[in-house]
Amino acid sequence: MKPFETAPRTAGKSRPAARGTVSVRGRGTDRILDVLDHLERVSPVTVKDLASALKAPKSTLYLLVELLVAREYLEPASDGHYQLGPRAGRLGMAYGRTNSFPAVARQLLQELADASGVVAELVVLENWTQFVAFAMTSADNPYLRSSEGARFPLPHTASARFLLRDVPPNTILREIPAEHYRFPNGDSITPQAFIDDIAASRDALACSTRGIVAPHLSCIAAPLLGPDGKCRAAVSLVMPLAEIDAREAALTQTVLRTAAALSEQMRMIPVNIPGT
């Protein structure tokens, strides 16, 4: 196998709840969770945006947003928009403290970023986009910023060739929107060419792309394999386009070592990667 490139609780006795109380409370809880789920994917948004996306009454959402702001799960942005607030961030940090794999992944990604001098990412497939679960930067290239939490169209990324290799082609063709096949640099890839790239990844250790995710960037990616041998995530290096030709061979080996180490960790400890 070889690398490949692709272009209040009330005191006293409890009483049975009145008929409908549980279901009403349940719907309210569902909507609160729907709001938070949506803000995790799209932020900032207005209440009107939420009403449209969630198909819920604006009057209800105004009350829920007001509650979430008061509890700091949301905070106002600009022009009537809202975004996730500091308490939501603290929940994320608490999750990271109780899950061992993220701690190991961040350490190995930081070592990769320091060794390569560029951005190191761990990415996963989520909602038919590539989601950057973790990203670490190098002090050598401060102008290369972390894109942790960002999402990218799948055809734009080297990692997606691995993330999709266990997905049937007809499912891929059905789920990826047509506009995702157009690149920021003005070029495009046909759906069939993308399917061919994914097929090629099954016999490859790594994949590189040039100027696709952004005109000035290149990427080198390698898969993370779970105990079943299937691709669960991918490691990627993001670097200036001008650097990849001279450094691709050496950096590919560095990425492969990190991918192997993370794959081994996935076999040894419970894994819950954001987005999976």
Automatic annotation (TrEMBL):
GO molecular function annotation: DNA binding; DNA-binding transcription factor activity
Region feature (Disordered): 1-22
Coiled-coil regions listed in the entry: none
Keywords: DNA-binding, Transcription, Transcription regulation
Residue intervals of the IclR-ED domain: 87-275
Keyword Membrane in record: no
Domain HTH iclR-type: 26-86
One GO biological process term: negative regulation of DNA-templated transcription
SMART domains per record: HTH_ICLR
Name by which UniProt lists this protein: DNA-binding IclR family transcriptional regulator
Lineage of the organism: Bacteria, Pseudomonadati, Pseudomonadota, Alphaproteobacteria, Rhodobacterales
